[in-house]
Amino acid sequence: MSDFEEEVDLLEEEFGRATKFIERGHDQFEQKELLKFYAFYKQATSGKCDVPKPGIFNMAGRAKWTAWNDLGDLSKEQAMKGYVKHLSQLKPNWDTSSEDDSDYKPQKGSWVSVSTFAHEEDPATAADKTLVDFIKEGNLPELEQALASPEMPSLINELDDEGLGLIHWAADRGNEHVLKLVLAVPGRDLDLRDSGGQTALHYASSCGNRDCVRVLVEAGADKSARDDEGERVEDVAFDAAIKELLK
């Protein structure tokens, strides 16, 4: 075995111990530190980032993708060294304080052992859920925190892969408190059109979500808006109380 091969073997062993340390104690680190570990791990095990950037409302997935993609053409060996160095800077005595883990087996779906984005192969965990997931669940605390992101004003009027914006999802689900959180984001377009030209008021009206219709009307939504097929908001409403709100 050449000196280079022996050096690589030693590096791989150290990298393996480091990943096990992180997997066991990842709750000791801040999110930005874990993102760096994730990026080095992906680069070391999968090479250069070659997957599409996650959807605009998948904030966690986009953060992971960006961290990995930023490593560019960094070699496998450099990535392993980067991983170990990052850990040593944060926990200088990690390699001497860790327990014997010769029989340790990574748990399926664990933070550091996965080799692809979690949402591609496992049910969404709290860390991997998107803004749309929070809207569907009516998870107000998580949604409020996500909407407070500094980049949200630049994303609030974007459409996702299904051709909907956050305001459409909120109006569709019928939770007025969720809708109010979305409406509170700076720069939001109250009459944002989906891929078919429908506004949030179209969605709330057609779904029979009276409270959301009221919130949108009070906020000044255009009651005369027509979609790409010429359908007015009133045309898609079947609830008498909603028709009254739209007058």
TrEMBL record:
<dbReference type="InterPro" id="IPR014352">
    <property type="entry name" value="FERM/acyl-CoA-bd_prot_sf"/>
</dbReference>
<feature type="domain" description="ACB">
    <location>
        <begin position="11"/>
        <end position="96"/>
    </location>
</feature>
<dbReference type="GO" id="GO:0000062">
    <property type="term" value="F:fatty-acyl-CoA binding"/>
</dbReference>
<dbReference type="InterPro" id="IPR036770">
    <property type="entry name" value="Ankyrin_rpt-contain_sf"/>
</dbReference>
<keyword id="KW-0040">ANK repeat</keyword>
<keyword id="KW-0446">Lipid-binding</keyword>
<dbReference type="InterPro" id="IPR035984">
    <property type="entry name" value="Acyl-CoA-binding_sf"/>
</dbReference>
<dbReference type="Pfam" id="PF12796">
    <property type="entry name" value="Ank_2"/>
</dbReference>
<dbReference type="Pfam" id="PF00887">
    <property type="entry name" value="ACBP"/>
</dbReference>
<dbReference type="InterPro" id="IPR002110">
    <property type="entry name" value="Ankyrin_rpt"/>
</dbReference>
<keyword id="KW-0677">Repeat</keyword>
<feature type="repeat" description="ANK">
    <location>
        <begin position="196"/>
        <end position="228"/>
    </location>
</feature>
<protein>
    <recommendedName>
        <fullName>Acyl-CoA-binding domain-containing protein 6</fullName>
    </recommendedName>
</protein>
<dbReference type="InterPro" id="IPR000582">
    <property type="entry name" value="Acyl-CoA-binding_protein"/>
</dbReference>
